[in-house]
Design goal:
- The complex is a heterotrimer.
- Chain A is mainly alpha-helical.
- Chain A contains twelve helices and no strands.
- In chain A, helix 2 packs across helix 10 (225-249), helix 6 (132-163) packs antiparallel against helix 8 and helix 10 (225-249) crosses helix 11.
- By secondary structure, chain B is of the alpha+beta class.
- Chain B folds into three domains: 6-39, no CATH class; 47-361, Cytochrome-c3 Hydrogenase, chain B (Orthogonal Bundle), CATH 1.10.645; 369-406, no CATH class.
- Chain B has a three-stranded antiparallel beta sheet, with no helix packed on it.
- In chain C, strand 2 and strand 3 form a beta hairpin.
- Chain C has three helices and five strands; from the N terminus they run H-E-H-E-E-H-E-E.
- Chain C has a single domain (25-109), classed as Alpha-Beta Plaits (2-Layer Sandwich).
- Chain C is elongated.
- Chain C is an alpha+beta fold.
- Classes of the chains: A mainly alpha, B alpha+beta, C alpha+beta.
């Protein structure tokens, strides 16, 4: 009997809260905030609150065209792979408790790898679309991955280094015990926000889906249901990425009451999304070679500096 | 990229980067451009032929609608040629009003270009801001001329509408607002890092190449080619106002941006000079319906460069031949040179930097022999005879069809 | 740039929420034409000068004329307004002229009895 209740609870967590449905709703809210803020920054009105949901419904109702020369199985499978990878990631990130839903030792590394799966799925999907624009976009997507992965990993792992553990729950426990230690990770936070911009393919790093150069990059040949799935993946990736950054670099507020904890979590995520929208409005798009130079010349040294600071502080804490 | 793929990517005729259809077939190796094949002609509408079947006053409105952004340029250029043929002397106030609308059109066109350039490099905020400010100019033009594009202010012998004191006050107030906004854009242009990175070193055209390839307008002036029809061959009221011709030595897209921004500031100064010195004369002279036989060439500095119209009249009320050479045609050859060994990501902004207006451009007819390797410019009569012969060889005979029209055309 | 962005959040957006808010065209905007049958003398100079053949004048009685204007063909250049010696034609600032049925684009101006 207890087993059945546990299974039902698990099913509820995976599918409803904080799983698929909650993430979908949060994704729609995040897209709305992003688009409304972007529009207001440009002196325009922006879409109404139900616009992302309306877009989703409209896209699902449209005709799904699969190009004849595309590899049918890869083409149809990749959006699903990307969506599931992003949804699964939320179970290993501590949201408003100190433990994530299914914690185990080493799960911070698993989260980092789970977050690269969508990019790989976009690459494979774009490549097997066999359209010229999709191929160029997918190759750019992978090139971008090679550039921002290194600083992102170093920044995230240096925060974990300070806490002396690869387990997310242990990390948040450590930062809870030493209240203001997360302030040492601010450089890493800045590096990680820029890397998150690159991962989500938002300006100034929206090179793989540059509309005026390669139409839509890897997404060019997708239409109808698949396109709806891909857009949903991008929205959920925004929420999951923001939650990940909030959990690694802003691990405070876990000891207050349950409603307050949820509220602080929401504030953290909305704050990161606001930073993303601002940078979208503020910068022009970089070229791929400029982006690689920028990442390797500026972001990697900063991330290394963060690593050195944390190693030194670790010595001091001992 | 050692094992980069080699393929040909079609930019156009339909592409989000292009505002009008044109076909650029780009040979790519990885991300580098190895060659570009340019094909134009998608916007050809037979305007030059249509002009031969309408009277001069009807042609005025037809020529105006060659392009929406440089409509006053084409209209004024045509009307200047016809006035020269008819021997009319246009009153001074009409010339001043023509210059006023010309400079307002230049402002509107450069703001539009700034927005398009911003969009091509992914900087949508610049697009939204500049097009918001462009509304100010368009409202002023609607107030003065009666329409936001295709102004229709010209008539043969002068202008159709006069400007009164309240309109002058409105125009001056609008110019003040716009000048402030332009100063802000100059500030962004010189200080915003991502913008400068995307625009510098892109689409480089050296001075010798610009002269050799015949670049006109801001494209040429950014490579230090010091030519401006307003100063070298003054028309309308340009010999009565003082202004500077802006040149720049950068030679890349950044230089072209700076040239256009500074030309905006010059346009404000010209407009203020015109409005303070408006002479008090009638606004038009009566024009005859038939025009004496002759040929005339008229030049005009459109926002994109030098625009030329050739009109041949034969004593009737319809022109015999009208030929339009738009500035974008002169700049097109320079595009191939600019794209050598650049990245694919630069392609939209390089094409946008010459401010292409394919609607203006698609007029030329050139003939290629497949067995010989040289080109020839063939005139209309010979072309028609050649095509009739070509079809006869393939068993199609048009002679019965054309009995009605054959007598009207003069070879 | 950041300052401009932040200011824009607090300023009213510049979008006109058409059709809830209407934009007024200036008084002498060249919109739909209006024809006064009383003043027309049937000289047909407007037809001669029209670039597209959008206007047609028919005689219904001695010194009484009717006009039919095809809004689909008209390019709103108002040359006919200038050509008319009796000022029987006028350009109004009416610009909301879209129709779903092409037949409704031909506007007839009857002579008032």
């Amino acid at each position: 009997m207890g087993e059945i209740i546990r299974y039902l609870k698990d099913l509820f967590s995976i599918l409803i809260f904080p799983g698929f449905l909650f993430l979908t709703a949060a994704g729609f809210c995040a897209e709305f905030i992003d688009r409304k803020l972007y529009a207001r920054l440009q002196n325009r009105v922006g879409p109404p609150w139900f616009q992302p949901f309306a877009d989703f419904v409209k896209l699902v109702g449209k005709e799904t065209i699969i190009p004849r020369e595309a590899n049918q199985s890869m083409f149809t499978l990749m959006p699903l792979v990307a969506l599931s990878a992003t949804v699964v990631t939320i179970f290993y990130i501590p949201l408003w408790n100190m433990r994530s839903l299914y914690a185990f030792d080493g799960d911070i590394i698993v989260v980092l790898y789970l977050l690269t799966i969508p990019t790989l799925a976009f690459f494979i999907g774009g490549w097997y679309s066999t359209s010229l624009f999709a191929r160029i976009g997918s190759v750019r997507s992978l090139t971008q991955l090679f550039s921002y992965e290194v600083p992102l990993f170093i920044a995230v792992l240096s925060s974990a280094l300070l806490a002396d553990s690869w387990s997310f729950s242990q990390i948040t426990l450590f930062y809870n015990r030493h209240p203001w230690y997360w302030l040492y990770n601010l450089i890493g936070f800045a590096v990680a926000v820029v890397a998150l911009l690159a991962k989500l393919e938002k300006a100034p790093f929206d090179i793989p889906e540059a509309e005026t150069e390669v139409v839509a990059g890897s997404f060019t040949e997708y239409s109808g249901r698949f396109f709806a799935m891909l857009r949903l993946t991008l929205n959920i990736e925004m929420v999951v990425g923001a939650a990940f950054l909030a959990a690694v670099f802003l691990p405070f507020g876990y000891t207050l009451g349950p409603v307050l904890r949820f509220g602080i979590f929401m504030v953290k995520i909305i704050g990161i999304i606001v930073i993303l929208s601002f940078s979208r409005a503020l910068f022009a798009r970089l070229r791929i070679d400029q982006m690689i130079i920028f990442c390797w010349k500026y972001m990697v040294p900063l991330a290394f500096m963060q690593l050195l600071i944390n190693l030194y502080m670790k010595g001091m804490v001992r | 990229m050692a094992h980069a793929h080699k393929f040909k990517i079609p930019i156009g005729p339909q592409h989000p980067a292009l505002k009008e259809p044109a076909s650029f077939s780009v040979a790519l190796k990885g991300e580098k451009i190895k060659g570009v094949d340019v094909r134009l002609g998608y916007n050809h509408r037979g305007i030059e032929k249509a002009c031969e079947e309408r009277t001069y006053i009807q042609d005025l409105y037809l020529i105006e609608r060659i392009c929406g952004i440089c409509s006053h340029a084409h209209s004024t250029c045509f009307v200047q040629a016809v006035e020269e043929l008819a021997g009319l002397i246009v009153p001074a106030r009409a010339l001043y009003i023509r210059t006023l609308v010309a400079e307002l059109e230049r402002i509107h066109s450069h703001y539009l270009w700034l927005g398009v350039a911003g969009h091509e490099i992914g900087f949508d905020t610049l697009l939204m801001y500049t097009w918001r400010d462009r509304e100010v100019v368009m409202d002023i033009l609607a107030l003065l001329t009666g329409n936001r594009v295709n102004y229709g202010i010209n008539t043969i012998g002068g202008v159709r509408r006069d400007i009164d004191k309240t309109q002058i006050i409105d125009v001056l107030a609008a110019i003040d607002t716009l000048e402030e906004r332009t100063k802000y854009y100059i500030e962004i242009g010189t200080q915003e890092t991502t913008l400068i990175k995307r625009l510098s070193g892109v689409g480089v055209l050296s001075h010798e190449e610009a002269v050799h390839l015949g670049a006109v307008g801001p494209t040429g002036r950014a490579s230090a080619v010091d030519r401006d029809v307003r100063r070298d061959d003054p028309y309308a009221a340009y010999d009565k106002v003082s202004f500077e011709v802006i040149t720049d030595t950068h030679g890349d897209v950044y230089g072209r941006t700076l040239v256009r921004l500074k030309e905006l500031m010059q346009a404000y100064s010209i407009i203020r000079q015109i409005l303070t010195n408006l002479p008090d004369t009638p606004i038009a002279v009566k024009a005859p319906r038939t025009v004496k036989a002759g040929e005339a060439i008229s030049r005009y500095e459109a926002p994109r460069g030098e625009d030329m119209h050739y009109v041949k009249s034969n004593g009737t009320d319809k022109p015999e031949r009208v030929k339009v050479r738009a500035p974008t045609l002169a700049n097109m050859k320079a595009v191939k040179q600019m794209l050598k060994d650049r990245y694919l990501a630069d392609m939209p902004i390089v094409i946008a930097a010459i401010d292409p207006c394919f609607s203006c451009t698609d007029r030329l007819v050139s003939l290629e022999y497949t067995d010989k390797n040289d080109d020839e410019i063939i005139e209309w009569g010979k072309l028609r005879a050649y095509s009739i012969q070509w079809y006869k060889q393939r068993g199609v005979d048009f002679s019965k069809l054309n009995k009605r029209f054959a007598s009207k055309v003069v070879w | 740039m950041i300052r401009q962005l932040l200011e824009s959040i607090f300023k009213k957006p510049v979008t006109t929420l058409y059709p809830h808010e209407k934009l007024d065209m200036p008084k002498r905007f060249r919109g739909k034409l209006a024809y006064d049958a009383q003043k027309c003398i049937g000289c047909k100079l407007c037809i001669k000068d029209c670039p597209t053949g959008a206007i047609s004048i028919t005689k219904i009685a001695d010194k009484q004329f009717e006009a039919v204007i095809d809004l689909g063909r008209c390019i709103y250049c108002a040359q006919c307004v200038d050509s008319c010696p009796k000022k029987a034609l006028e350009a109004t600032p009416d610009v909301e002229l879209a129709q779903l049925d092409a037949g409704k684009l031909k506007i007839a101006f009857h002579a008032s009895t």
